[in-house]
Amino acid sequence: MLRKFAALTSAIAACALAACAGGAGQGQSAAALPAMQRSFPVGEDLVADVNLPKNTAGEELPEEGVGTQKNATWGKIGGFTQTAYAQVLAFPPGTKLTVRNLSKDTQHTFDIVAEAGKAPAHFPSKGPSINASGGSIGQVGYASGPINPGKSVTLTLSKPGTYLIECAFHYGEGMQDVLIVEKGAKPGPEGTPSPKPKATDPSATPTPSAPPSSGW
Ligand SMILES: [Cu+2]
Fold it and tell me: For residue 216, how far is its CA from the centre of ligand 1 (angstroms)?
């Protein structure tokens, strides 16, 4: 597992050195890793790859790699990203948002449970709906219903606002986040990735421990 991870890390580093362009990937060689890709070990010998396109959010258990964040404004958030690691989500109004379950074997939901109100976030103590509701409009009361591993749902973020979102299965395990819908919205800074590989493979060339985020 470690060797595989090290190899991927090297690949990412090589990509960064070669100044791989991010985004559309047009004209990019198939072997090049897109800039927004992250790879991390998720089990004994599993490596999950993430490459989130535009207008897409990903979700998974924090320990599967997306991690959590102690956000300076909102407090502890985690389990959701639109980049690679846990962050406050933000999209402009009108976005047709795709929410993808990044897990290999765990169902999740995407629920918009409340308006955020004043920071920090106060997530409701009551668990959100496991069943789908609210059609495909991204407003309070929207519940995706169970999303199978690797699958996605789409919803339209029409109403500006700041919302609290949760996974109905794992809100108690850190899948709680803030979703900002406003003009010119930018996602929040990313949290610390987890888990981090601790040991280094002696056969691997030591790579600088710069986070895989260098350059993106
Ligand atoms: Cu979940």
Answer: 27
